[in-house]
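Morning - S-adenosylmethionine inputs below, output right after.
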Amino acid sequence: MAALMRRYSAGARWYDVLSGERLVYRAGRQTGIRLLAPGSGEVVIDLGCGTGLNFAPLLAATGPSGIVIGIDRSAEMLAVAQRRIDREGWSDRVRLIRADAAELRPEDVARAVTDLRGDGDGRADAVFATYSLSVITEREEAWRRARACLRPGARACIVDMQPPHGVWRVLSPLARLACATGGADISARPWRMLERDAVDPSSVRRAERKGGHIVAVAATLASGSPL
Ligand SMILES: C[S@@+](CC[C@H](N)C(=O)[O-])C[C@H]1O[C@@H](n2cnc3c(N)ncnc32)[C@H](O)[C@@H]1O
């Protein structure tokens, strides 16, 4: 786990260029946002937000009163995210919380939301997790804690990776290498937690990109139990 932390700390400055974003992973991000369909003025938690590559599309989708709360354990990844916020003038709409997702405190999220919004109970409308839950080792606990930050009837979208299939299987070694480089467990299939916790199976929407290497699943959640 310490080795993984060092990897993201050391690589934070180069993450956007070296992570395969343009060629491969942006497609999953875009598909995830489309499936999540954040509404105008909604509060979205970006779990394992990294350098903040989701912020622009999330803010575009939620409109001028939408809010994003980015959570990540790496100070260096968050420093890049904060520079992005400052550069783009998003400081009244995006707040960062440095935390291990498996120790996330809903009261910290609620404080960040009410700081930005000044009304409401600070609960979020949705959680978006792109390529992070396969990296987070205690993913069940992280997921439980993220759900505890949400209002009843909230939605979630998990975008993550698996080996490609069909004719694309030839690219499997490359996909495995990319995942191993990023410390991701390619067999974790974290979207299954969302499929399991959906309020009903008909709310689940799923799409695959890049030969099945990227899976995006969105659903309305059943109410999570408080921590
Ligand atoms: C592959 S990056 C994905 C970043 C971003 N979501 C994206 O789509 O570009 C994984 C991120 O998860 C973060 N992370 C890993 N373990 C974590 C944990 N236990 N709690 C919070 N963040 C964690 C890393 O610091 C890193 O920023």
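Note: The pocket of S-adenosylmethionine is lined by residues 8, 48-50, 53-54, 72-74, 77, 100-102, 130-132, 135-136, 182 (CB under 6 Å).

O.
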